[in-house]
Amino acid sequence: MQKQWLKWFVVGMLVFVGASICSRSVHADDSLQRVKEKGVLTVATSPDYPPFEFQVNQHGHAKDVGMDIELAKQIARDLGVRLQVKNMDFNALLVAIQTGKADLAIGGINPTPARQQNADFSQIYYYGGESFLVNRADAGKLNRQSALKGLKVGTQTGTMQERLAKQKLKGTHVVTMDKATDLILALKTHKVDAVGVETPVAKAYVENDPELKDFKAAYQLNPKDTGSAVALPKGATTLQTAVNHSIQTAKTDHLFPKYLKTAGKYMQVNTANTSMWHYWKYFLAGLKETLLISVCAVLGGIGLGVILALMRLSSLKWLSWPALSYVEVVRGTPMMVQVLLVYFGLGVFINIPALPAGIIAVTLNSAAYVSEIIRGGINSVAKGQGEATRSLGLTKADALRFVILPQAFKNIWPALGNEFISVIKESSIVSIIGVTDLVYELNVVRADTYRGVAPIVVVMVIYFVLTFTLTRLLNYWEKKMKHT
């Protein structure tokens, strides 16, 4: 019976969210009018793809730059509104426009037939072509596409390069990763033999990293779905017309070569000083976000966990079953899925910013595990304690507050400590929706400096210091509890 209740609970949630998303499409198109009324054009991008979009260090603060960002600025100027850039993983860009998190998505996106089923696109604004990156030491033998047969070729997940590699590179093992920076690191550490990217991206890496070399791909390409275009929500025809007008103006005025030149200047600025100390403000900003998320999730997880534990222990089915269902759903699904559901799913009804959405998701996840820890702690308290409280005339609430829970927390303190440490580490998953935590800043620094390992070491040390300090504090309080 409980499993049946859980199944209908999950199905109901999926139908509710799906129906809400679909309901957006029944209204007449007012996409352009809505952008002008709010005075802001929100553009989603993944700033790890130079020279299309990346970030530059300006006085210790990250600034989104690149050819695509220049185009987004031009579109916003033409509309007479302010530009707001939202950073997230490439895989989340189309979801962002489908759920209303962004008005446009831009990021070297190819308007493939599969993508056109879920989004509308502007006219093609740039044809870059396809290339492969290899280590310069291997350039003598890996200088043409046919030489890749039997080797490992890396591509970014969900991109045109992934589709082309899987379709065209027969006898080649295709390795996909979410971040272009991860692919470059995999190439330089010989986890893959080559990386498929667009030609401008390949040129950008070769010009800024002497260890890399590139060569042109031999794909037979269809220009209709291999160029870069701006993605829009389905049915946003008025906004699409305005975007196309801006793109055509930029083409007529020959602005795209200027955009690429500007991007090249920014890339030279990034590589002028690639020391980790130069980016200390990035790591500090990420540390603040990580600590904020962790503290809020721990406090919220304990509060909600106590409530869920008491519901689970209740003899009333209408209290125990919802709590049981909640715990099973959370423990049975990855935290990444939960973060995406809170940010994009709930975003259908409430436009929750990335940071609050990340805090909510991590808190809800932690609460499920904390509730089971607390429930076990309450059950570990001897039944005689409860009988003693009743003999003293204490109410159930007072007995729970003053006798049962204090003893339970003393018993479960080590387990709670482990959960707190896990929250600090697992909160890094929120970087997928653009929360600027330590892992997000790690990827920014890697993209900016073309250094794959050094930023990872810095962030690893920061996490170790955090968890080691917390472990010492938890051990101190555990000893204090034993003597009380």
From TrEMBL:
Keyword Signal tagged: yes
Localization per record: Cell membrane
Membrane spanning stretches: 291-311, 340-362, 452-474
SUPFAM superfamilies associated with the record: MetI-like, Periplasmic binding protein-like II
Signal sequence range: 1-28
Keywords: Amino-acid transport, Cell membrane, Membrane, Signal, Transmembrane, Transmembrane helix, Transport
Presence of keyword Ribosomal protein: no
Any Pfam family: BPD_transp_1
Its membrane topology: Multi-pass membrane protein
InterPro entries cross-referenced by the UniProt entry: AA_ABC_transptr_permease_3TM (IPR010065), ArtM/GltK/GlnP/TcyL/YhdX-like (IPR043429), MetI-like (IPR000515), MetI-like_sf (IPR035906), Solute-binding_3/MltF_N (IPR001638)
Domain ABC transmembrane type-1 positions: 287-474
CDD domains: TM_PBP2
Similarity-based family: Belongs to the binding-protein-dependent transport system permease family. HisMQ subfamily.
NCBIfam families in the cross-refs: HEQRo_perm_3TM
UniProt-recorded name of the protein: ABC transporter substrate-binding protein/permease
Lineage of source species: Bacteria, Bacillati, Bacillota, Bacilli, Lactobacillales
